[in-house]
## 1
Amino acid sequence: MTSEENADVCVLGAGPAGLSAALRAARLGARTVLVTRDAVGGMAAAEGPVPVRALAQAARLRREARHLHRYGIDVGDSVLDFPRLLGRVREVVAEVAEHSMMRAELAEAGVIIVEHAGTARFTDPHTIEAEPGLRLHCDKVIVCAGGTNRVLPVPGAELVGSQRDAWAVTSVPESLLMIGAGATGAQVASVFAELGTRVTLFEAGPRILATEDEDVSRVMAEAFRAAGIDVREGFGRIERFEKVPAGVRMVYAKDGVVETAEASLAVAAIGWLADTAGLNLGAAGVDTNARGYVQVDAELRTSAEHVFAAGDVTGRLMLVPHAVQDGYLAATNAVTGRGARLSPPANPIGSFTDPEYAQIGPTEAQARHDRDVVVATEHFADVVRPIIDGRPAGFCKLIVDTTTHQMIACHIVGERAVEIAQVAAVAVAAAMPVEQFIRIPLSFPTYTNVLGRAALNAARQLGVSDFWD
Ligand SMILES: Cc1cc2nc3c(=O)[nH]c(=O)nc-3n(C[C@H](O)[C@H](O)[C@H](O)COP(=O)(O)OP(=O)(O)OC[C@H]3O[C@@H](n4cnc5c(N)ncnc54)[C@H](O)[C@@H]3O)c2cc1C
Ligand SMILES: NC(=O)c1ccc[n+]([C@@H]2O[C@H](COP(=O)([O-])OP(=O)(O)OC[C@H]3O[C@@H](n4cnc5c(N)ncnc54)[C@H](O)[C@@H]3O)[C@@H](O)[C@H]2O)c1
């Protein structure tokens, strides 16, 4: 392409939000240019869920290998060849990039893709500049720039890596200070603990995974401790980091008492910020909100009439499926001016730690605050498939509205929790009464049977007697 280009729609960033936006805009007939700083796929493909899931698979396989002897299969101790594992992760990332980035569809729809374009920026409301010397004049712009990790505001923070550095190590670190126990921190801690690293997980708040149901936080902390992770909730305040021969030292204080912790590697995952630094949003009249994310309305329109935003950069639910839906919606509104809105009927969230955890709907505390509910909890230890597979740890908590009998929430810890949550999500989205759910003869023996048992439990609590009418 030439260095000067005109477009109906310019999409900035080619993560899940940008890919979806560009495809939709082009399919609606707009001349669309997709400009991205690095490779198509964005953070999601290169540093987020894809490598995480590949590493989690390695951790799972190691764990499975330890169980082989119980089934009479003796292969000796597993030995980890870390460079080969990293090679496999790179292979997976490349395979996903080749097969799963909708390149054929984008090409067929006529999207002009500009990869490795550096940081694109507005020079005026309708002009975008990127490397090397690209100048785009666009009628509409969709900002899909994603996010970046928050940096600890303390001396020595440059000694602390992000999740990106955690996946880039060339040998298994002997020890790790993992700072922040949200979804990312829990994931990094879980993977490295399984690979043999001595992990200390520092959470400033009173519990890990603070956005999960309290029982999920508690059981996950117990499981992490059982796996050898030193979990420190409410540990105090970090004062500084220092370089030491063995790696890095963290100095922190609680109630006036100063303590230190040392490890070969320190990684922080203390929150995710909008990646807007280089965009020069002011030149386009695009406002950010008090939290620094691009301010959008329900139609994903920013404060500038012709600029839309989608995905993590807007700071709402920061997940791939939401980024994809956002991109579609923003492009629809940008091209057609329809003013369409989208409100997902359910938002399943889950993570690939060991054990997995997942949620759909409000926590028990939130649900009880808002209405009368019954809460039914079943344990994996009482369900046939987890017993067969030797995976008895975990629970499934189902929350049902007492008045309508509708399934409104489910919280799960245990093997395949994320998959089980998808079934619960469909029931929640359908506002399905629990007596209808229990009529579904779920396949046996499956992990989803734990959800079936929880539904039966809830129905009993509600006094539903004639299940089979
Ligand atoms: C460790 C980790 C694990 C995760 N696991 C999961 C998971 O299991 N499931 C899930 O659903 N979500 C997961 N997420 C969240 C998920 O990755 C994000 O919600 C998703 O990537 C957001 O997509 P996006 O398109 O908004 O942004 P991104 O994927 O971040 O893509 C944005 C793109 O824009 C580019 N860009 C930024 N600024 C500019 C600019 N000025 N000019 C040009 N290009 C620019 C960036 O380089 C990037 O390529 C995880 C996140 C992390 C960090
Ligand atoms: N499997 C998944 O779906 C998945 C995985 C990773 C990330 N994500 C997405 O990325 C988003 C960001 O995740 P995240 O984990 O990076 O951030 P987060 O905001 O979810 O969690 C950050 C954690 O760090 C803690 N913290 C903050 N300051 C601290 C300090 N100084 N010392 C110690 N702890 C501190 C917070 O209390 C919080 O628990 C998530 O909300 C999620 O949407 C999803």
## 2
Amino acid sequence: MKFERLQLRGLRCIGEASLDLADGFNVLVGANGAGKTSVLEAAFLLSHGRSFRSGSRDVLMQRGASGLSIFSTVRHADARVVRLGLGREGTRWEARVDGTDVLIGQLVRECAVVCFEPGSHALIAGSAEERRRFLDWGVFHVEQDFLSAWRRYQRALKQRNSLLRKESAVSEDLYGPWEQELARSGTQIDQWRRRYLDALLPYVREQASLFLGELGDVELRYRPGWPEGEDLAGTLAMQRARDQAKRHTTSGVHRADWSLSFAQAPQREHLSRGQEKLVALACLLAQARLDADHRGEWPIICLDDLASELDLAHQASVVESLLAAPAQVLITGTEMPKPLEQAPNRLFHVEQGRFTPLL
Ligand SMILES: Nc1ncnc2c1ncn2[C@@H]1O[C@H](COP(=O)(O)OP(=O)(O)OP(=O)(O)O)[C@@H](O)[C@H]1O
């Protein structure tokens, strides 16, 4: 899939801009603070409904502006075209698909964007929440019922936690239905995640051998969030007294995690900072490839400041693998990335939120 014309208004330093994007590599070059990353942020926002660099969408709105909007047509591999919009007027955020109001969460069904940026190494070095988010994004795209199971799980978790936090004693019977729901939806989510990681492993191996061949073979390990082999309903009932003391649910899929280990770097602490970034990139591109095989088209790939994140040889192998994909890529830099000097499909010079096409 690809963005055709990306139209932005009132986003950070961008007053108004319209970018006609090409099929392959779109390179945005400009000084620090010029507004390059803001374009990637807009692309990501249009697919995920959230920014990759700040928790709140509201900070994206240009200071003093009355509204923010992002529009784009997305052309799919089967030639289907959808028009996506996301914006805020006053205090309300709204999303549209082909002119019809939709929930912001529905945008992700229409358009997939994968983004590698300076914060991406958190996938390896950050909290388990980052890794669960990565995993669930992948599962969501292959398992139709994932979202509804996830919502049922979250609702039951909220209810059980609120029972655990009650000051006065509550009947133990009240826990039963919520624990059964947690076990039912949680066990389903657990199975989907394991299946997804099994499917992802060959893709991770392929990407990792390209970027990190010196580290040897890679394995993925999933930790479910409760003792392996135990039944979740039984664990929850058994741990109720402990959870009451802690005032929250300490076991379940919301506590799961996964990790990678390489033959030559069995623990994360064995990786250099640069290797952490490369592992994160290998995982993101592996997920993009799996997604491409599943839906028959590549997600849109955003690479923020690749030249300062990776050395030249690794930049070249990333570019080479994406040229072969083929994917639409949006890439930023203070200078033209060397491996793209010969052939960017489109080049924009960025200055103070304005975009000048040079190619
Ligand atoms: N809410 C806002 N309103 C107006 N301007 C903002 C707002 N938020 C951020 N900015 C400004 O917008 C610009 C954002 O730039 P962006 O991060 O896109 O730059 P960049 O070209 O990617 O820079 P770098 O190369 O330093 O990463 C910065 O100059 C920042 O000060």
